[in-house]
Amino acid sequence: MGSDAPAALAVEAIDVFYGESHVVQHVSFALRPRSLLALLGLNGAGKTTSLHTVMGFLIPRRGRIMLFGEPIAGLPPAAIARRGIGLVPQGRRIFPSLTVAENLAVAAHGAATKAWSAERVFVTFPRLAERRRQYAGLLSGGEQQMLAIGRALVGNPRVLLLDEPSEGLAPQIVAEVARAVAAMKSEGLAIVLVEQNVRLALSLADDVVLLNAGRLAASGPAAAIAADPALIDRHLGVF
Amino acid sequence: MSAQFWLIQTLNAVAMGGLLFLLAAGFSLIFGLMRVPNLAHGGFFMLGAYLGATALDENLPFWLAALAAALGVGLLGAVLERALLRRLAGNEQGQVLATLGVAFIIADLCLMTWGGNPLSLSPPAWLMRAIAIGGFFFPAYRLAVLVLAVLLAVLLVALMEKTRLGAMIRAGVDDREMAEGVGIPVSRLFTTIFFLGAALAGLGGVIGGPILSAYPGLDTDMLPLALIVVILGGIGSIGGAFVGSMIIGFIYNFGIALFPNFAYVILFLPMIAALLIKPEGLFGRVPQ
Ligand SMILES: Nc1ncnc2c1ncn2[C@@H]1O[C@H](COP(=O)(O)OP(=O)(O)O)[C@@H](O)[C@H]1O
Ligand SMILES: [Mg+2]
Fold first, then answer.
1. pLDDT tens for each residue of B175-214
2. Where are the beta strands (DSSP E) in A41-194?
3. Does A89 touch chain B (CB under 8 A)?
């Protein structure tokens, strides 16, 4: 890291289990402030499990998780959310029986004083504004993804976790989501991006962490990883 | 049969429906939102009736007795949720057994405290009269029960559908983990729901007191009715609980009046039909 400033998010040697199955093994990575870290790996590598552990859905059996230098592992998810971690989960998981506006309202924290409010989300994603009174379950996949991102943003997080935001979306929508991610980063948000779309991830990332079967396989600056097709091929299949 | 019979029975049926709603609304909230089939709900209702009877004995005004009983039973519900059911989260069988045990304990404690003789509760003096409707006289109190049930139904629907608190609760039902992940304190909300559901049952016990009185066995008389209403109307739906209550109110009343020997059987028919044809109930949501 080269400086004394703490990482926005530091995952330190965590071990995570589902029952007896040791799904994340001694994984560490550090997300620098105002940067984007791409967490890559094949299906089942443990990416979602890692993000869920950061969010507090799972508790690591060993290891520490630090948010700007403060330990958060073991706190309940709601407390972790309020300390400044926002999750855009895989599969979007918007609240289908809430309207679009309600999805944002229930997740809003400090919206009156801080950067992101529901109104700003509606400006960023005008399609959501048109549908604000509709039940979220009726939205298209792309709209649900925008809502999931907006729902995380109105919590005014300091660290944003994005789990496969392009999954199942049309190319046009993927581009829109990518633009939004780039904009959030340029505003100073620290972001962990999990993506199957490696090209997209490498184009947005400052740093890359490769997971393989629950273990850390490689990590480094995005440029260095992108310049090593053999490494990518080994851990991600065909680039 | 005379027009008077139909009119009076219809009024009785909607009044009974109103009372059933007070009973079933809390059961539906708790079951729908927390997936806890609270078998102590009949006990909550009975305890409310007894607490109300005691409060009235102390010469509290009726509304205050009802409020006190609702608060008392609500607190008991909240404590039970925190101390007992929370530890059994995800273990439905454990929850069923635990709430059944609580139901037995409540029944025994009520018997010890208030004895085996029925206690009657007097309605407020200003409702102890009959109102003329279409040339017939009908007890004002029963109409008041209906009005109260409608008011509460509207309030509860507004709470659940129009407030941020209600949206948070629905979010917790849609996806509990994700709701926590956006900062919603779901477990505190669920304690609140348990308080509210139990308080509604306690309130129902007092409001039903002048009609049903308080007696040992009131709990086990009421619990199946709550189940039938909620299964018919759809779990977790306040509107469904209201419609279900009215339907069962009609069936119960006309069943007793027309086929006294089969009233109890007839009661279960709509529930069975619902389970066969529309298992999620008339207004139930299909789980995601
Ligand atoms: N709830 C669960 N229970 C048991 N095993 C799980 C569960 N969720 C995921 N797994 C397993 O854990 C491993 C990592 O899964 P996951 O973190 O979802 O991978 P990724 O997000 O990288 O595709 C996989 O082998 C998966 O089958
Ligand atoms: Mg995943």
1. 999 999 999 999 899 899 999 999 999 999 999 999 999 9
2. 62-67, 70-71, 85-88, 159-163, 190-194
3. yes
